[in-house]
Write a structure and sequence with these properties.
Helix 1 packs across helix 9 and helix 7 runs parallel beside helix 8. Strand 8 and strand 9 form a beta hairpin. 39% of the residues lie in helices and 13% in strands. It is α/β, with parallel strands linked by helices. One of its GO terms (biological process) is peptidoglycan biosynthetic process. Keywords: Isomerase.
Length: 259
């Protein structure tokens, strides 16, 4: 679940790890963006998406949204666990810090400077220099595949990112959909390649661990799992905007061949 198509990277990661898994994607894009909303509003919206997904009796619920993980995890776990394991999304600060620094964390304005993110930096950055970079408008532009808006928001955030940064943590799941554009904007000429750290792969793997499931080998021949899309509590087709990103194309149901 996520506010919008920010769930695509984690869903695609799960599809790669377990091609046979039936996936339920629950979001409420009409209420985006969640970042500027109050914690109470975010919690209520997240509960709505979670309840719609839980009605399909999944093995686990992945909260593929940093904002919802910041504000709504306690309420989601109180309502759904232990029957339904709830897996949140945490910015990949710890693995990023393991590679040295300096590090920049790109996140929504609401998450940037929040006690939640500051605690993660304190606990996991291990003395590495960290710059928090707010990215106003980027998640919304990604949600609508607004190329000009994406380029403008990425350029503005890159201008706030110190030139000496070697690693960028993508602190919003929407940002992983435009990782290549972010890397190109931050990369300095003649500098070593910038390292980007998203959360999708690690979160998908953690969800499998929570339910005691192993990933299949990448060359395993298995029947593809199904895909159910829920928008605002109602079943729907995968939004057209999702197909502008590679992750959405990976998840899209294959149309039957016509003879």
């Amino acid at each position: 679940m996520d506010s919008g198509i920010g769930l695509l990277p984690t869903a695609a990661a799960m599809r790669r790890l377990r091609p046979d898994a039936d996936l339920v994607l629950s979001s409420d894009p009409a209420t985006m963006p969640w970042g500027p909303r109050t914690p109470e509003d975010v919690t209520e919206l997240a509960l709505g998406c979670a309840r719609a997904a839980a009605a399909h009796r999944p093995d686990a619920l992945i909260v593929a949204c940093n904002t919802a993980s910041v504000h709504a995890l306690p309420a989601l776990r109180a309502e759904l666990e232990p029957v339904l394991p709830v897996v949140g999304t945490v910015p990949a600060i710890k693995p990023a810090a393991a590679g040295g620094g300096p590090i920049a964390i790109w996140a929504t304005p609401a998450t940037t400077g929040s006690p939640y993110q500051r605690a993660l930096i304190r606990d996991f950055a291990d003395g590495v220099e960290v710059t928090e970079v707010p990215c106003p408008g980027l998640a919304d532009a990604v949600q609508h595949a607004d190329t000009e808006g994406i380029d403008a928001a990425v350029a503005a955030a890159a201008a706030r990112t110190p030139r000496e940064v070697t690693t960028v943590v993508l602190g919003c799941t929407h940002y992983e959909l435009v990782a290549d554009r972010i890397r190109a904007a931050v990369q300095q000429p003649d500098a070593p390649p910038i390292a980007l750290h998203g959360s999708a792969g690690a979160v998908a793997a953690q969800a499998l661990r929570r339910i005691g499931a192993d990933p299949f080998p990448p060359d395993g021949a298995v029947a593809p799992g199904g895909l159910t899309v829920i928008l605002g509590g109602r079943e729907a087709a995968l939004p057209e905007v999702a197909l502008t990103y590679a992750e959405g194309v990976l998840l899209a149901p294959v149309a039957p061949a016509r003879g």
